[in-house]
TrEMBL record:
Coiled coil: none annotated. Keywords: Membrane, Transmembrane, Transmembrane helix. The chain crosses the membrane at residues 7-26, 32-53, 65-90, 118-136, 157-181, 193-215, 243-264, 270-294, 315-333, 339-356. InterPro entries: DUF475. This is Integral membrane protein. NCBIfam families: PRK14013.1-3, PRK14013.2-5.
Length: 382
């Protein structure tokens, strides 16, 4: 099971490390290995959240996520995305941007760094919306009840998460603008870009997430009426097939997963520049890490880990909220990637331990109940 799920990840790791040695020797090997570990540590919460969505999808779409999705994640976000950002920010053609990435690495790194405020605003807002919608939803299972109960009541207010996200964005952009003016206004013109990028992240979340949720709800409605209307659908031919609708639902959930992965990858791509500004090594290291994150996602689904450890999804969403805040803060201040990774690991580890304690308590309670029943049967027999 482990080899079947992680087999491709192991193969990609071997190929990636060999390619690194051939490209830049053993120093490149070490850099790629470090980048792989960085990506995995920063994206573990991504795997948990992805698993919560992927478990609703068929085996076919899970394979699509592991194949086509990996190509999008590795080549799209870890290789093409930084080049596109440089092309847009520097107002140069994509070919010139690639040439810059390969032949003038310092200038390339500077351009990506300059584009960081808009990248962080987009990703931060997208992730913040995921966290807010999760925390404001009333759930049967609650982890930190003293926080989640009152917030679930507040969540009954329509559009509250959107309002809070917009307030956070306004405060961030105004603070960024004020700070830029105090220090000579070098980035004052980017305050507007931050605002626009943040709104774009919010709109992206609402459109993709909304379509995914819409088709998922439609799919559930179709499944409930399937038995009652099956004969009528076959006779008239007018009823839309549940199979087609399932495909639509899965497609939009897949699209949502890809946008989610893109938002998670922002901090990894930016953080990678602290280790190297070589785009080839960056793509190799982050690509290997992305492959493990995807394999881990499928592993969590197939093992039913989220069902066994019910607080894991909570911990992952709290980690998402923390990452969103960190991204928004990094628009103005620099935060070490180690801190970013540790926050996620601590929150998920805490939620895992809480799940283990809950399972033990339930098992103990069930054992006491069975013992009590046996005593009652014995006394009744006597």
């Amino acid at each position: 099971m482990l080899l079947k799920t992680f087999g491709w990840s192991f193969a990609v790791t071997a190929l990636g490390l060999v390619a690194a040695v051939l490209y830049g020797g053993w120093e490149a090997f070490g850099i790629v290995a470090i980048l792989s570990i960085l990506e995995i540590s920063l994206s573990f919460d991504n795997a948990v959240v992805n698993a919560g969505i992927l478990k609703k999808m068929s085996a076919f779409w899970q394979k699509i996520f592991l194949t086509v999705g990996v190509l999008i994640a590795v080549f799209g976000m870890r290789l093409v995305f930084p080049v596109v950002i440089v092309a847009i920010s520097a107002k140069i053609g994509p070919i010139d941007a690639v040439d810059l990435a390969l032949n003038d690495k310092d200038q390339y790194q500077q351009l990506v760094t300059d584009a960081h405020p808009s990248i962080a605003a987009f990703g931060g807002m997208f992730l913040l919306m995921i966290f807010l919608d999760f925390i404001f939803e009333d759930r049967d299972i609650q982890w930190l009840r003293w926080i989640e109960r009152p917030l679930a009541k507040l969540g009954k207010v329509d559009m509250l998460s959107v309002c809070i996200a917009l307030i956070v964005l306004l405060i961030t952009s105004f603070t960024f603008a004020a700070h830029a003016h105090q220090h000579g206004g070098a980035h004052a013109d980017k305050a507007e870009t931050v605002l626009i990028s943040g709104i774009a992240g919010l709109i992206t979340y609402m459109v993709v997430g909304g379509l995914s949720g819409y088709f998922e709800d439609k799919l559930e409605e179709e499944e409930e009426r399937e038995h009652e209307e099956e004969e009528e659908a076959a006779r008239t031919g007018k009823k839309r097939s549940p199979v087609v609708l399932a495909g639509q639902a899965a497609f939009f959930m897949f699209l949502y997963l890809e946008v989610l992965d893109a938002s998670f990858s922002f901090d990894g791509v930016i953080g990678a520049f602290a280790i190297t500004n070589d785009i080839v090594l960056m793509a190799l290291g982050l690509g290997i890490g992305a492959m493990y994150v995807r394999s881990l996602t499928v592993y969590l689904v197939r093992q039913g880990t989220l069902d066994d450890y019910v607080y894991l999804e909570h911990g992952a969403h709290y980690a998402i909220g923390a990452l969103a805040v960190i991204l928004m803060v990094t628009i103005q201040y620099q935060i070490n990637e180690v801190i970013t990774g540790l926050v996620g690991v601590v929150l998920i580890g805490w939620s895992f331990l809480s799940s283990v304690r809950r399972n033990r308590a339930l098992a103990a309670a069930e054992g006491k109940a069975q013992g009590s029943d046996e005593k009652t049967e014995v006394s009744s027999g006597v």
